[in-house]
Amino acid sequence: MYGKITIGIVLISLVLILAACSAPSAPAASAAPASVPVSTAPASQTAQPPVTLTPVSQPAPSTASPSKPSGPVKATEVVPTVANDTVTIPVSAVQKDWNVHFAVNTPGGLQSFMAYNLDGQTYVRASICPPCRGKTYTLSGDTLVCDVCATTFNATTGVGIAGACVNYPKASVPYQVSNGNLVMKVSDLALAYQNTLKPGLP
After folding, report:
1. Is the CB of residue 139 less than 8 Å from the CB of residue 99?
2. How far are the Cα atoms of 7, 11, 44 from residue 115, in angstroms, in the given order?
3. Residues of the chain with pLDDT > 90: what percent?
4. Predicted model pTM
5. DSSP alpha helices (H): ranges in 66-163?
6. Coil, helix or strand for 87?
7. Integer Cα distance of 34 and 77 in angstroms
8. 139 membership: H or E segment, kind and range
9. Structural domain includes residue 91
10. Number of domains in the chain
11. Is 160 part of a structural domain of the chain?
12. For the domain that residue 165 is a member of, what is the CATH number?
């Protein structure tokens, strides 16, 4: 009886061995791809459309004269250009400051002059009060006021209105406008200065 049991065990073992051998083998693990490109860009970085810059046009410079200051306008010193018998000062200086003072070395010595705007017109005059020796004038409305003695003069005609130096009107200087400059002759400036040193207009 033990022999039969032994034979049965052997047969069962053989069946199990055969079953194991005949079972399908497990599929081999798929090989990983040799190399997978890895992105180094940050996850949040995405392609952006190109930015187009539109040029902004700049306003053209204004050629208009600045507005006249409110109230009296003190004289601003400017330096003229002198070449032989020709003296020039920029028109823009008179337009910007409205009332300018300049000195010119003439055969009679260093002499003072003024240029100012009034009602769209530029005037050039000798700038001296003989009695008080005042050399600068404030443009106040349509009058010139001596900064030393306060004598007033008509800014259009140069004639005295009231004050200690009223008898010494301010003689005018002829000029031309060329290449953005007021152009005067030293001889005309000197003559206007000499006329202003005398009482009354010539």
Report:
1. yes
2. 142, 137, 69
3. 63
4. 0.67
5. 91-97
6. strand
7. 87
8. strand 137-140
9. yes
10. 1
11. yes
12. 2.102.10.10
| Angle at CA of residue 100, ends 81 and 143, nearest 5° | 145
Q: How far is CA 59 from CA 56, 62, 63, 64, 188, in A?
A: 10, 8, 12, 14, 41
> What pLDDT score was predicted for residue 201?
79
48 within a domain of the structure (yes/no)? no
Helix-, strand-, coil-residue percentages of the chain, each rounded to 5: 20, 30, 50
Mean pLDDT of the chain: 80
Tokens 């004639």 locate to 159
Helix (H, G, I), strand (E, B) or coil at 126: strand
- pLDDT-derived band at 202 (thresholds 50, 70, 90) equals confident
**Residue 202 and residue 171: Cα distance in Å, rounded?**
9
For residue 166 the two structure tokens come to 């009223």
Q: Kindly tell me the burial class for residue 125, based on how many C-beta atoms sit within 10 Å of its own C-beta (0-12, 13-18, 19 or more).
A: buried
